[in-house]
Amino acid sequence: MTTGIHHVTALTRNVQRNVDFYAGFLGLRLVKQTGGYEDGEQLHLFYGDNLGTPGSIITFLVWQEGASGRVGLGQVSEIAFAVPPASIGDWLQRAITAGVPVSGPERELGETVLRLRDPDGIIVKLVAVDLPTAAPLENPLAPTRIRSVTILTGDARATAAFAERFGYREAMRDGPYTRLASDTDVIDLRQSAGFVTGGPGTGTFDHVAFRAPDAKAVRQMRLDLKDHNGLTNVHDRKYFLSLYVREPAGTLFEYATDAPGFTVDEAAEHLGDTLLIPAHDASRALDLRVTLPQFARPGEERRPMRDLPFVHRFYTPEDPDGSVYVLLHGTGGNESDLMPLAARINPRATLLGVRGRSTEEGTQRWFRRFEPERFDQDDINSEAAAFIFFVGEVIKSYGLDHAQMTFLGYSNGANFLGALMRLHPGTIQRAILLRGGEVLEKTPSADLGSVQVLQLTGTQDPFGRHGNRLETALAESGAAVTVKHIEAGHDLSPEDPLFVSEWLTNL
User: Fold this and answer.
1) What is the residue-wise DSSP string for 277-345?
2) Do 143 and 28 contact (CB within 8 A), yes or no?
3) How far is CA 418 from the centre of its chain?
4) Read out DSSP for 371-392?
5) Which residues, in sequence order, are bridge partners of residue 82?
6) Quick check: helix, strand or coil at residue 498?
7) Which residues form the VOC domain (predicted)?
8) d(CA 44, CA 223)
C-alpha cells in the first residue's frame, strides 16, 4: 500500500498572482479549476505534475482580496517540493531574476534547500533530492513531487502518534524537529509550544491530505476515528473520496483516495482548461461562472490590474460588445455580488465590480451611518470624492470609454450613486438604482440635464419612502428619471433584470 501526502491546500487572496507563481514561475501544471465543493462561490485551483498525480498536488482556495491569516500552532507552515539535485543554482538565479523572495541554499535536516515566498507570503521550499514522477512536466528543472510539509505543533509526540495512522514513522530528530517518513515523502514536526495559535485566512495552509488506497480504507478510517475532534462524514469530491479530522494538536488532516483522479471529467491533454462547476451547483452554474474571479495563464493576454483606491474586479465575457457596467453592492456585499444580475441584463457587457470601503460590524458599506436612517454626511462627501477619483483612474488605466459606462447600484450602493450624481455632476451619465433612497440631508445644486436614471422600487419595501424622496431630488436637478414600482420588498427580484433590459433597449 502506497502511503504519503496526497495534496496540500492553502488560501490565496489574488488568483492572478497565484497562477503566475505556481504555473508560471514554478512551472507546475494547472490541472483543475472548479467551484468549491463546500462553497460554490469560492474558486479552487489544483496544481501538480503533468497528470496531477497524488503526491504532487498543491491546491488553493481563492479568497480574492480576502483577509490575511496568521501562521501558528495547529497548522502546516511550509511546503517543500523536490527538484533535480543539480538544479538548485538554476532555481536561485531564476528567483533572483524574477524578484521572488529567496534565501539559501542551506542545509536543513541533511538536505540542500532553497526557501522561497509566494505572493501571499507562504513559504515554499525547493529541496535538492531525486524523487521522480510518473508524469513529468515539460521543463526538466520543474518540481517533481512534494517532498515534505512542516507542521507547527505544541505536542510533537501526540501529532507523531496520530500520523502513524497514515503510514508515517519517526525517521530522525534534530533540535525542535521530528522527521516522520512514509514510503514516498516526509513530514517535519516542529515543536513550538508557547507559540501563537494559527488563524485562518489568506497566506496560510488549510490542511494536508494523505493517501488512502481505496474508498473502503476511508470508511474504515472514519470508524476508527469516530471519537476524534473535527471528524467529518465521508465526502465525494468527484476526483477523490475523503474525510477530515484534526490531529490532537489541531492541524487539519484529510484522508483521500487516489482514484478516480483528475481525468474523470477532462482528457489528459486538456486538464485544467475549463472552469468546472460541481454537480450540486448545476442550477446556478451560469451565475457562478460570472462570479468566480478570472485569470490569465502564463503567456496569455491579460488585463493588468492597477492599485487603485477601491478594491475592484473585472469580468470579461467571451464576446464583449464594448459596454461597461460599474457595479456597487448593497450593505454586506462585495465586488462580485451584482455580476450575475448584470450578466443577465447584458451577457456581452464587461463588468466592473467595486467594493465599498466603509465597514460596519464587519459588513461592507459605501459610507457610515449613525443610526439605521441617519447617515454620516461628511463620510458620504469624502467617499464620493474618492470614488470620482477612482472612476477617472479606471478610465485612464484600463482604456474604458466613459460614454459606454452604466453605473448600477443596489440598496446602499444605489443610495451612494444617488448622492454621487449630485455631489459630482458630469461623472455619471447613466445610472440604474435598485431599491435606492435619499441619504443627503441637504440637496446640493446640480445640473443633471444629460443624465438618464432608472429607479426600481419595491412596493413592499419598508424603505420605499426614501426612494420617493430621491426620485424627486434627481428630477428637480434635471435628470430624466424613469421609475418602476415592482411587486417586491427590499430584496432583488427576478423582474429587476427584465425591467433594466427593457429600459436600456429604449434609451
Assistant:
1) --GGGGGGHHHHHHHSPP---TTS---PPP--SS-EEEE--SS--S-EEEEE--TT--TTTTHHHHHHH
2) yes
3) 31
4) ETTEE-HHHHHHHHHHHHHHHH
5) 127, 145
6) helix
7) 4-129, 145-258
8) 29
| CA separation for the pair 147, 370 (Å, rounded) | 55
pLDDT tens for the 507 residues of the chain, in order: 689 999 999 999 999 999 999 999 999 999 999 999 989 999 999 999 999 999 999 999 999 999 999 999 999 999 999 999 999 999 999 999 999 999 989 999 999 999 999 999 999 999 999 999 989 999 999 999 999 999 999 999 999 999 999 999 999 999 999 999 999 999 999 999 888 999 999 999 999 999 999 999 999 999 999 888 788 999 999 999 999 999 999 999 999 999 999 999 999 999 999 999 999 999 999 999 999 999 999 999 888 889 999 999 999 999 999 999 999 999 999 999 999 999 999 999 999 999 999 988 888 999 998 888 889 999 999 999 999 999 999 999 999 999 999 999 999 999 999 999 999 999 999 999 999 999 999 888 899 999 999 999 999 988 888 888 999 999 999 999 999 999 999 999 999 999 999 999 998
Question: Do residues 58 and 206 touch, judged by C-beta distance below 8 A?
Answer: no
DSSP lists the bridge partners of residue 256 as 211, 242
- Kindly provide the b/e burial profile for residues 406-418, where b requires at least 16 CB atoms within 10 angstroms of the residue's own CB: bbbbbbbbbbbbb
CA dist., res. 99 & res. 115, Å (int): 14
Q: Please, which residues have CB within 8 angstroms of residue 251's CB and are 6 or more apart in sequence?
A: 74, 75, 76, 151, 153, 159, 207, 208
Among candidates 94, 96, 125, which has minimal Cα distance to 109?
A: 125
Task: Identify the three-state secondary structure at position 360.
Answer: strand
The DSSP call for residue 22 is I
Helix, strand, coil distribution of the chain in percent, nearest 5: 25, 35, 40
What are φ and ψ of residue 127, in 5° steps?
Answer: -110, 130
d(CA 330, CA 212): 45
User: By CB neighbour count within 10 A (0-12 exposed, 13-18 middle, 19+ buried), where does 139 fall?
Assistant: exposed
The three cell numbers locating residue 506: 429604449
HSE (CB half, 13 Å, CA atoms) of 482?
14
Reported as type and span, the H/E element at residue 159 is helix 156-163
Longest dimension (CA), the chain: 80
pTM of the complete model: 0.94
Contact 38, 96 (CB under 8 A): no
